[in-house]
Amino acid sequence: MSHEGTPDEQAIRDAKIRERLDLIDRKIIVMSGKGGVGKTTVTVNLANALVDAGKTVGILDTDLHGPNVAKMLGCESGALQSADGNNFLPVKVRDGLYVVSLSFALNSSSDPVIWRGPMKIAVIKQFLGDVEWGHLDYLLIDSPPGTGDEQLTAMQAIPEMTGSIIVTTPQDVAVLDARKSVNFSRKMQVACLGVIENMSGLICPDCGKEIPIFGKGGGKKMCDEMDVPYLGSVPLEMHLREFEDAGVSTLEKTPDSASTKALQAIALFLDTRLQISTSFNDFKDTSSCSPTACASCSSNCSSRNN
Amino acid sequence: MSHEGTPDEQAIRDAKIRERLDLIDRKIIVMSGKGGVGKTTVTVNLANALVDAGKTVGILDTDLHGPNVAKMLGCESGALQSADGNNFLPVKVRDGLYVVSLSFALNSSSDPVIWRGPMKIAVIKQFLGDVEWGHLDYLLIDSPPGTGDEQLTAMQAIPEMTGSIIVTTPQDVAVLDARKSVNFSRKMQVACLGVIENMSGLICPDCGKEIPIFGKGGGKKMCDEMDVPYLGSVPLEMHLREFEDAGVSTLEKTPDSASTKALQAIALFLDTRLQISTSFNDFKDTSSCSPTACASCSSNCSSRNN
User: Which DSSP symbol is given to B189?
Assistant: First the structure.
């Protein structure tokens, strides 16, 4: 109870969270069942693509044990500034893109965050209530894998969550765990906006042939079986990892690559779809919005926006 | 407190855990900072390699949100049997290999386990106290990524933990998180037995050239900097994923592959080293045991055991 506070304190904090988040048009949680499927890669690239399209976007990194959003965006040296000692300003990455991550508060990037659940819940609620995002078109919430404290807290504490995006690789064990995330989203009554199949084939830089290193099509198949929208597939390309490690935008550096086109297409599709659909249930039930044409062809994913 | 029980109940449970684990010679936790680096792949293959070498091995799957050990071992249909209604027998995979996982207790593989920390702590302690492993040479504890409830509970509840194995990919963001795991292990005063660099290069099945898809050498570099043993690198091979998804042993199916040889070599090295070293501190401090010859060459990893 010490982390949660008294009922009065909880009510005040919940009201503060609501006040902050009322200024944000769309709140989307990016989840996966299995780790290492590329949630953070997807989150930072969707954010960059949305900013390129003129939107104002915040990223809240709720992966407290492995907060990598800042490193991938090249803003690790940022710090959470406070104007009044009580509230924080997010770190600005570029015009229209803002980030809050626990990594800004750690003394060293090698320090482990050895926290049990209640401490994690308290910190996520603090991020939700004490950060002065101002108006945002999108808040993307990057989460650790699984369906535990971090995801539960975000789902329960954020009023009117727009929906969830589930990231998976085509591999059976990843798809198995992604099913859990879809069902989790449903149980929490948060619309599943769709599934992204990441690491969907690798193009050999030497011979140019496609290597289905983690298989292919597992995400699309799951979407058909579970009746959730399939948002598209993103191929694994060498430069993605290299630019991530260097904290450089892969969209900017490789505008013509298959992964850039796929990520941009998914961002624009989501944005367009959310503008059309005012009801989350409408979005959830409209299986026709699923760009099934991309299932077998990652290179022309963007065609669905033409 | 309801999950923890009264102080008397806690003392009884702790005594029961100690009694069970006293029958197990070596207890090793397999950890990573980042998800998806192949902890479970490493765990099941090290286990199989140790069993092939005549050892009796148990695997405790503490990844409650994404328990994939049973699927990778092809024993998902197993069930935890109880002789007396209070204690459980592990599921036998083959002679000498036993598994306990929450997946055996789930109604459906798509069901999300929506649990906060205290519930997870209670289940892991139940696994430790109520499973009749009998005598084992090794208990390998597979864990989810990070340094939260699951890892803390295992570290604190298991008396005389032999040590930790940290799995990483060569990618910067994975190595960054692996550093946290090494420091976590040190803070918990559990010897770090070493680091394994997984997904260390991919051989193109078409042209045979090596593709450093997640980079190369990041794990070795970190070991040098942090003064922890480097256990070797395991290349990413197509068949690894395929056999995992099918629940088949890759060691048995591809005895001559580079990944099989690397995993077997690491298992034998660990086993030999732990037989020589009776003191964990001795192991921790003996940097000469680190098979540095393997840093640039995954294909002849096994040479260090000759």
Answer: T
Chain A contact for B211 (CB, 8 A cutoff): yes
Instruction: Determine which helix (DSSP H) or strand (DSSP E) holds B155, and give its type and residue range.
Output: helix B149-157
pLDDT at position A285 over 90: no
Q: Tell me the shortest Cα–Cα distance from B240 to chain A, in angstroms.
A: 10
Helix (H) or strand (E) holding A74: none
Of A72, A115, A121, the CB nearest to B173: A72
Q: Which of B64, B109, B205 sits opposite A176 (nearest CB)?
A: B109
Q: How far is CA B8 from CA A255, B11, B14, B20, B124, in A?
A: 64, 5, 10, 19, 19
For residues A291 and A269, give the distance between their C-alpha atoms in angstroms, rounded to a whole number. Answer: 9
How far, in Å, are A32, B64, B66, B68, B77 from residue A176 at the CA level?
10, 14, 9, 9, 15
- The 10s digit of each residue's pLDDT in B19-61 is 999 999 999 999 999 999 999 999 999 999 999 999 999 999 9
Residue A52: both structure tokens together: 């390129």
Contact B164, B27 (CB under 8 A): no
Amino acid at A142: D
Task: Please report the beta strands in chain B, taking only residues with DSSP state E, as ranges in sequence order.
Answer: 24-31, 57-61, 91-94, 97-101, 136-142, 163-168, 192-203, 210-211, 230-236
- The whole-angstrom separation of Cα B76 and Cα B61 is 13
Any chain B CB within 8 A of the CB of A61? no
Q: What is the pTM of this model?
A: 0.88
SS3 A162: coil
Q: Could you give the CA distance from residue B20 to residue A30 in angstroms, rounded to a whole number?
A: 40
Distant-in-sequence, close-in-space partners of A139: CB < 8 Å, separation ≥ 6 = A21, A24, A26, A27, A28, A57, A58, A59, A60, A133
Cα–Cα distance for residue pair B302/B298, rounded to 1 Å: 9
Chain A residues 8-47 with a CB less than 8 Å from chain B: 33-37, 40
Contact between B25 and B64 under an 8 Å Cβ cutoff? The reply is no
Task: List the Cα angle A70/A75/A81 in 5-degree steps.
Answer: 95
**Tokens 């990441």 sit at which residue?**
A198
Residue of B143, B163, B121 whose CA lies nearest to B13: B121
- Contact status, residue A74 vs residue A97, Cβ threshold 8 Å: no
Q: Which A residues 80-119 touch B at CB under 8 Å?
A: 109-118
Confidence of residue A86 (pLDDT cuts 50, 70, 90): confident
Are A147 and A186 spatial neighbours (Cβ–Cβ below 8 Å)? no
